[in-house]
Input
Amino acid sequence: MYFSKLFIPILKNNPTEAKIKSHQLMLRVGMIKQSSAGIYSWLPLGFKVMKKIEQIVREEQDRVGVQEILMPTIQSSDIWKESGRYDDYGEEMLRIKDRQNREMLYGPTNEELVTEIFRSSIKSYKSLPQLLYHIQWKFRDELRPRFGIMRCREFYMKDAYSFDLTDDDALFSYNKFFLSYLKTFKRLNLSAIPMAADTGPIGGNLSHEFIILAETGESKIYTDKRIFEVDSEITKIEKNSLNTLRGEYEKYYAVTDEKFDKEEFEKKVSENQRINTKGIEVGHIFYFGDKYSKPMNAAVDFNGKKEFVKMGSYGIGVSRLVGAIIEAKYDDKDEIMKWPISVAPYDCAILPMINKNDNSNLEKSNKILEHLNKNNIDTIVDDTDENISAKIKKFNLIGIPFQLILGKKSEGDTFEFREVGKETQNLKIEEIITQIKKAKSN
Ligand code: 5CA
Output
């Protein structure tokens, strides 16, 4: 792929309207474009990253047996009246009328719709558990949309829903998602910590937010720093091991603002272990029993007895994660971004020094490009006539993890090559391929 042919509208300077680094960088390198307050178009670079995140989220849901569906963005108000949330949800809900004057809405979340789908087909406890998810746009008319795609009005979310017969089974489902979230965030190269959280308009009494620490985050958190050392490695999904895993985290005090109790914090956490900072909520899981199944009459037959199913819901902010990764990885002082290779828009950038009357480096680039592509290394060539230091500066911002520089130092069959932010090496093409492949397989 050639840079000059791509739609990557780079800005010379940081846009002044952006207050945090992820918002600045996303506008600066042309990942997104605002279309109205809190609503964005995703341009090729940003969209590529988001799609890769989405795919990792999907694979980790599939791996634990959650079934993918796709529900619409527009919902009927009827089911929300049944659950009682139509009035409760307030002004955050975008309400629409169709030409028949029917009250519709743009879904801010899907508990009602998925319950309606479930109750229309599942009648026996033998079909339980049912675990369903979709990845779909949501709309919340936030009072103060800000920080770009971090708190916006239209955003992309993975939301999953579990249906079980008993509380005990439902907690097993909850713990299953708990583990799968730890794995998902690990694959995204993020350290996201589960913290006891408030349930807000979703409801229920058990809930965890998955938080990554960041000064620019909007969630205040209070935690024991030993929680960062808990080992999340569990391979078998069994009831006991899952209970133990969640227990390992719950040993340590870790809560969000609404759950904070100063006395408890000071009693449970010694002064030198206390962390009181801010974080970004990238996921949120809830257990709410029969909060929706009862008013909406979603029940199964259990040996002749009618049982309302026990439900939970599990969200990941797929679009927010793009910004969250930038907050975690971007060094805005030196203006260096490095995407984790699992979500990078390209694996490698070839940066040739191009002189007016000499096309040789561009020709070399084409050959290397072909070679890398054959090895499934997604590569971009900067074929513009900018000077080499401008190209390096630009690609340090774009954050492609590997750079192959065709300048003075690349001679014969060795090339100047580096992982962004690390020392430059002189390597043969085969060595370069091995290094990139190794990074991709980790
Ligand atoms: N139905 C439940 C779980 S599926 C639910 O809606 N949970 S939520 O409200 O916590 O949202 C899930 C995730 O979506 C959050 O953890 C956050 O990462 C993301 N999110 C929520 N609101 C916004 C927003 N305004 N902008 C960007 N991402 C958001």
